[in-house]
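Quick question about two entries, pasted in order.
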Amino acid sequence: MYPAHFIQYLLLFHINRDYFECHEVMEEYWKQEGKGNSLWKGLILIAVLFYHYRRNNFNGAKKLISKAIMNIRTCKDEVDRHGIDSERLLNILNETEAAILRKKPYQPIAFPIVDNKLINTCSNTNDQFLKYWSQPMENSDTFIIHKHLFRYEQIERR
């Protein structure tokens, strides 16, 4: 019912907090689908803004949060059709924007998933999903937090 890339994105976002990989997974799917789906673009923006926010790049996060909010606002029906409460997601993003503008420390969020089929699909794919989705926790793994830096180091070594 839901695309595998979408499920993978949600697992990476909630369990690993690997926002860099969330971006990679969803961008691949978005390009594959012809770049027409605004929800996929919105999810890419959300992943990248949280990547910047966690790294205290407030300027980068500030630029992206307004784009993400605008994007989600324009595709609310699509967001809802994919099992996420668009109004609650917009509220979460607005609260995040206020925190970014005040340069408050990063806090992980959980997508307000309201479709039990989506929740079950995620939990059946990875039994850790419910734990991390219901109680958003930070992943302090330096590799995940600064992944783009390590990725370029790996490329240079080749």
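Here is the second entry:
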Amino acid sequence: MVKARKYVVKKHFEGLPKREDYDIVEYELPPLKNGEILVKVEWISVDPYLRAYNSRFPVPYDQFGFQVGIVEDSKDPRYPVGTRVVSHKGWCDYCVINTTDTSVAPAEIPHKLPNLKGLSNSLGVGAVGMPGCTAYFGFLELCQPKAGETVVVSGAAGAVGSLVGQIAKIKGCKVIGFAGSDDKLKWLEEIGFDKAINYKTADIAKALKEAAPNGVDCYFDNVGGELSSAIINQMNEFGRVSVCGAISSYNDAELPKSTILQPALVSKQLRIEGFIVWRWYSRHSEAFAELTKWILSGELKPREHITEGFENMVDAFVGMLKGNNYGKAVVKL
């Protein structure tokens, strides 16, 4: 029998998650059945949606999330011992995965780690995983950028935003990013952003007008709130907005109020569309191949913020929600 550990959410979060909101439970995994694999977890992802979805589940619940692991025992010939898999089994150090269950949602279906051609396996929960697909499809499919257009990205130093900005540059766009520290601004400009603005210290409307005197064509929205209202009110006619998230409000007890958008939406005939990345689940391999190619060519430079140790999961999660990470926040076991 294999002993495993997992994080169980025992209390709904109030504001930022806290260590006392979790229990670490030790338990024995059952023997494998046909169609199952035993996975030793190597990398675990922490992402904003873990906070956003917290109130949707009754407690207690096992903390979900993406992970990369290696198969240590198998009763499915398609996944021999030594195979690396990406799954949504969450914050645990070992798990049993049923590889034949077709009744689960797309996010719950495990897949073999893409061929990363020598890159770090951690990218399977980052730039060549769900966040990478989120950037790739959420930006390219909804914004449909054209060379020469001006693109704005909020949450630009995060896992998704930093990729969106670089993809926009690959497509020949001018890119402006908003982030929360001067060090992050410097990094964004190092990876190709034409301008980066500190939303905590700048006069947002004035700074954006100076950076984009001819207006904004595409906006990739990770944060919501007043920042997004200011950006949307400077968009050009027929501008496109891809709404990925609203991390600025995830820890608020009450939703914040922001400037009305309807005058800009109507007068500029803007298109705003939210999305969940699983819309394009059948095309994820397309994104994986393209993202890997760009990384290997040096056109895309993913950055990881690595925390080591299973016992530090909550610290990594809270740090990401506070904006301490540059690029993808991931935990190494």
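Reply: The chain has a mean pLDDT of 95. The longest helix spans residues 130-143. Hope that helps.
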